[in-house]
Amino acid sequence: MKLRFALLLALAVRAASFAADAERPNIVYIISDDHAWTDYGFMGHPQIETPNLDKLAARSALFTRGYVPTALCRPALATFSNGLYAHQHKISGNDPALLEDAAPKGGKANKAAKKAGESDAYQRLREKLIAQNDRQPTIAKLLGQQGYLSHQSGKWWEGSFQRGGFTHGMTRGFPQPGGRHGDDGLKIGREGMTPVFDFIDHAVAEKKPFFIWYAPFMPHTPHTPPQRLFDKYKAKGVKSDFIARYYAMVEWFDETCGQLIERIEAKGLTQKTIFVYVADNGWIQKEDAAGFAPRSKQSANEGGIRQPIMFSWPGVIQPGKRGEQLCSSIDFLPTVLAAAGAPIPNYLPGYNLLPILKSGQPTPRTAAFGETYAHDIANIDKPEASLVYRWVVEGKWKLLLTYDGAVSDRYSDANPRTDKRPQLYDLLADPHENKNLAAQNPETVARLAAKLQAWWPVTERKVLTTWTP
C-alpha cells in the first residue's frame, strides 16, 4: 500500500513538473551586432529592407527609444546576461589593456599584440575578467534552475558556453583558438542555422522550455554579404561600396532572423515563445573606408547607445509602438524571469516590465542611465579607471558628462573628448544631438547631474568641464 502511494505521488509530482514546463514560455534573445538604431524598415530607413524584423515589430511592444547602458559589445552583452550595469559586473571593456597597448593606433593587430595575447600576464588578466562573469547569476543559470534547456550561439566573450550556464552551445571560449569573443559560435547565421534548429528539435523532443541566445556576428565587420544583396543596394543608388555592403549585411542578418522565427512557427511554438530584440551597440558606417564613424560605436551619443527594443509574446504582450516611453536593456532579465515564473533577485537594478507589457500601460521607467568606458580596461577591479562618459535620458532631455578615465592610443579616435563641457540635448527636437543646450539650461544640467550621482556615485575620476552651471 505504501509502495503504491509512493508511486502515485511520484507520478503526480512528475506530471506537475511536465505541466509547469508546458506553461513556461520559451525565451529567444535576438541580438544584432554593430547596428544603428535608424537602420530598419520599421524605423523608417529610406533604403534598408528588414521585412522579417518589420513583422516582428508589428506584433511586439516596440520601444523606439530603447537604450543599452554601454556602447561596446562585451559589456553590453554581459548586461544582457546578468542584468547589471558595467560598474557592477566590472566587465567594462573588451580586453585588458595589456594586449591593446601592444597594438598600433587604429586597431590593427601586429606581432607585439599577438605576443602580448600569448603571454602569461595577459592570460591571467583575461581569465580574471572572465571570472567576473562566473560569479554572476546569468540568465542561462537562472532559467536552468527552472528546468530550461539553453543554447548559446554567436557572440559570447565569457569563456565557454558551459561557463555561462548554457546547457548547449557553440563557443569553446578563451583560451581556445579564436576564443576571444565567440570562436565557433561566430559561424551562426553566416554559415547557416543548423545548430540552433537542432537545439530547438531537441528541446521539443525533451518537452522542455528553452532559452536561445542568438547573437550572430552580423552585421558586424567583415562586411561580406551575398553578392545579390550588395548588387541590390548598389542598384538602389547607394554610391559608397562601404555603405552598400553594410546595408546588405543588415538585410542578410534580417534574413537569418526570419529563418529562426519561421522555424519556431513551424514547430507550433509562436504562442508559447517570448522574443526579445536589441542590438549590442550602434554603428554609423564610414562612406570612404571600412569601420565606424565618430559618435557611434564606443560613444555615449545616440548613435552608440540608442536601440529599438522589442518584446513579443502573441496573446500575452500587447503589441504597439511605445512612442516616447523609455526602455533599457537593464530591464530584460527581471522581465523574462517573471515570465518564466522564476524568482527575481532583489539586487537587480532593472524593472520587471511584464505587467505593463501585458496591460499596455506606460512603463515605470522615467529615466535611462548609462556609462561609457574605454575599449581597453585599465584596471579590472576599478571600472572608474577607464570611465569616459556618464549619461542620463529623462523625458526629452539627455545630459552627457565627460570624465578623465584612461583611453589607449589605439582607440583614442572613438572617444576624442574634444568637448569637455556638459552636453545637454533636447532629443525630441534634436535626436542626432547637434545643438548643446547646457548653457541655456543650467538648472536642468544641475538636476540631471545630481540624478547621475545618485544613480552611481563616481568618486575616483574627475569630470572634465570648462564650464560650470
Keywords:
469 residues, alpha/beta, Alkaline Phosphatase, subunit A, 9-stranded mixed sheet, 5-stranded antiparallel sheet, 15 helices, 17% strand, disordered N terminus
Q: Could you give a quick summary of the protein structure above?
A:
It is built from 15 helices and 16 strands. The chain is α/β, with parallel strands linked by helices and 469 residues long.
Description:
By secondary structure, this protein is of the alpha/beta class. It has one domain: 3-Layer(aba) Sandwich (Alkaline Phosphatase, subunit A), CATH 3.40.720.10. It is built from 15 helices and 16 strands. The strands form three sheets. Strands 1, 2, 4, 5, 6, 7, 8, 9 and 10 form a nine-stranded mixed sheet that branches. Strands 11, 13, 14, 15 and 16 form a five-stranded antiparallel sheet that branches. A hairpin with a 2-residue loop joins strand 13 and strand 14 (397-403). Helix 10 (227-235) crosses helix 11 (241-266). It is globular, with a radius of gyration of 22 Å. The model is unreliable at 1-20, 100-104 and 109-113 (pLDDT under 50).
* Shape-level CATH architecture: 3-Layer(aba) Sandwich
The CATH class, by name, is Alpha Beta
CATH superfamily: Alkaline Phosphatase, subunit A
Largest sheet: 9 strands, mixed
Gross morphology: globular
Gyration radius, to the nearest Å? 22 Å
Strand content: 15-25%
Helix content: 25-40%
Q: Determine the CATH topology.
A: Alkaline Phosphatase, subunit A
Average of the residue pLDDT scores: 91
What's the end-to-end separation, in Å?
A: 82 Å
Strand count: 16
What are the low-pLDDT stretches, counting only 5+ consecutive residues below 50? 1-20, 100-104, 109-113
Structural class: alpha/beta
Number of domains: 1
Give the oligomeric state of the chains in this entry, treating copies of one chain as homo and distinct chains as hetero. Answer: single chain
Number of helices: 15
